[in-house]
Design brief:
Distance between the termini: 35 Å
Pfam families: Med20
Keywords: Activator, Nucleus, Transcription, Transcription regulation
Number of domains: 2
Number of strands: 9
GO cellular component, one term: mediator complex
Protein name: Mediator of RNA polymerase II transcription subunit 20
Radius of gyration: 18 Å
Shape: globular
Order of helices and strands: EHEEEEHEEEEHHH
Number of helices: 5
CATH architecture of the largest domain: 2-Layer Sandwich
InterPro entries: Mediator_Med20
């Protein structure tokens, strides 16, 4: 899962269309849509104690796994629960409070190209588009490090110089089996990166 910068002089939507055209030119077929969303919760009561915010928890959903809900801590474990976890979070509001304005999601089109599955998404916060996400999966292989070079080669064919480096989650896994939680960790990192980019004030603009 990686972020693609918006092409110079183009909007987020135009850049997504440009990437989609490249994929279709390779021969990729549209296979429906996908969505990944993320709600941020902070530990209640922690705000205000020495001015520190509490630990953040991210509750995420992925349309590829409609019966699951993912709860992740930064640099921490990834809990995979069933979809009723959302109702549990409402009951835990004494411990975790929803940072309401912080919902972020990526939605877009799924493409199949031979053994590759590509998801091209527009990342939005509220009504505005904030960035572009690309998720690439090589379906026959479950050991991530075994197919990384192949993934790189394929990504270069339509992402060019914006092909990402090896994800940090791979470093921790070595030769172990890749899981849906690993994908969600990458989305969490991507969403947090995009959130931080929005918070940086641009100097010189009046």
């Amino acid at each position: 899962v990686s972020q693609v910068p918006v092409a110079e002089g183009k909007s987020v939507q135009q850049t997504v269309e440009l990437l989609a055209r490249r994929l279709e030119a390779l021969g990729a077929d549209k296979q429906g849509t996908f969505g990944v969303d993320c709600e941020t919760y902070h530990t209640a009561g922690a705000i205000g104690s020495q001015g520190q915010t509490g630990k953040l928890m991210y509750v995420m959903h992925n349309s590829e796994y409609p019966l699951s809900c993912f709860a992740l801590f930064e640099n921490g474990p990834c809990l995979v629960a069933d979809a009723n976890f959302d109702t549990l979070m409402v009951k835990l509001k004494g411990f975790f409070q929803n940072a309401k304005a912080n919902k972020i999601e990526s939605r877009g089109t799924r493409y199949q190209y031979c053994d590759f599955l590509v998801k091209l998404g527009t990342v939005t916060m509220g009504p505005s588009a904030r960035g572009i996400s690309v998720e690439v999966e090589y379906c026959p292989c479950v050991i991530a490090n075994d197919c990384w070079n192949l993934l790189m080669e394929f990504m270069q064919s339509f992402m060019g110089s914006h092909t990402p480096g090896i994800p940090s989650v791979f470093g921790a896994k070595h030769d172990s089996v890749y899981s849906p939680g690993d994908t969600m960790v990458q989305y969490m990192e991507l969403f947090n990166k995009i959130r931080k980019q929005q918070q940086v004030p641009v100097a010189g603009i009046r």
